[in-house]
Amino acid sequence: MPDTELHVIFNQPDEVFHPGKPISGRVVLSTTKEKYKARAVNIKILGLAHTSWTDTERVRKVNAEGKETYETKIVNYSANVNYLDYSLLLWASSDGSNELAAGEYAWPFSYTLPINVPPSFEGKYGYLRYSVTAEIDRPWRVDKDKKRCITVSPLIDLNVIPHALTQINDQASENLGCCCFTKGYLELRVNIPKTGFVPGETVPMNIHILNHSSVPVTKVKAKIIQQCKFIAYRNGTTVTYDGGYETSTSGMLQETQHDTRTVVKQGLEMKVAPRNEHKFAMELRLPSVTPTINQFSPVITVEYIVQFHVETSTTCGGNVDCEMSILIGTVPISKYLPPAYYPQDPNLPPSQPTPIGGGVAPAGVAPAGVVPPPGYGFLPMTDGTDNGAGDTPYPVGPPYPSDVPAPYPSGDEPKDGTVVVPSAPPLSYEESMYGTEGTELNTDENAQPFAPKYPVFNDLPVYNPTAPPPE
What we know:
The chain is mainly β. The chain is built from no helices and 25 strands. Among the domains are: about 5-150, Immunoglobulin-like; about 160-330, Immunoglobulin-like (Sandwich). Helices cover about 0% and strands about 50% of the residues. The strands form six sheets. Strands 2, 5, 6, 9, 10, 11, 14, 16, 17, 18, 20 and 21 form a twelve-stranded mixed sheet that branches.
């Protein structure tokens, strides 16, 4: 066991923190040395978006004799966005001795996160990373430090995003076969009952296949992909974020990298005979993934796409594909959740009952003491498609409106001063489904591999009012 240990201990055991709320804890130093040299103890909290990769280009050179040669040059692209850069002196030697006696010391710290910061994320070409580092300034010695990465999880409340409950519909058709060997056409229609989901929730998909061809349909595949976009600049640039961007990137050479990762997928063997149609439903459960990132993040965006693929028995031109965008938030839509009882806290106004049993209060019922940050808007895909999500950013309504109707039938109101509100099953914070392999960038910065944690709602009821009738 070392004679001196330094730890950062958070008041939040899961080490997940929300914008607008404090990051708090204490720095603990334990030493068995009679005179431990220390001049000061500092805490540093950083929040950074970073993208980087390399590319190659051919460079033409002409020597003194006029002979041309070409060389391959490596070009670096990178970008940094600084969200947090906070330092605090926790202790300093007041008598000039620069010494601490043997024992254990604890220094509390607290820092309130800004509201407009994106969630933690680790990707192939970049990351959104937050860290807390304790450092002991030691005279004439190497400083001692301890770094801890943390998860920042914004409140992306689907109840205040108007289109989160909007159905999405899409369709596609193809003439099957090749050249003069046509087989007729195949039509695919897909309906998803709403746009907004949370991790742990099941995404229902209602599928209608109209087979106007002379060959049977043999298989249907559905999957949800995470589509990441990374922006960087030749030779790099750094942007300080404070609600705006202080560093102009105009005139700089910008490059973009994309990365697509499968979140969940399912294949279904079936047979839809020629000149027949078939309606059925498929379901995909969302694992622990980052919510949609489309605000406060100029160099990294993350969107989610549901893709469908229908196969037939023909080997030439026998498939039909379509895709549609969904939004992933961190607070589930309360409209269809089962009721739960909450005792009324007499110290709170009527619109703020205290949740019990781990329930999540919906729009109109804010949990006691919780003041949510502004809602998170949803930007649709930028490729010009609509997919039912609208062609403008979702307007953001005021958090937790107070005009939500009572979620129980008239005359069935509970007694004894309690109220009934829809509630979600208790959420848990689970490591990203991609684990510590989510990024390959700057992993040596951390004392141990880090995987962000995201809120996961298990056992949510499946919302599918447009499901086809069972066969």
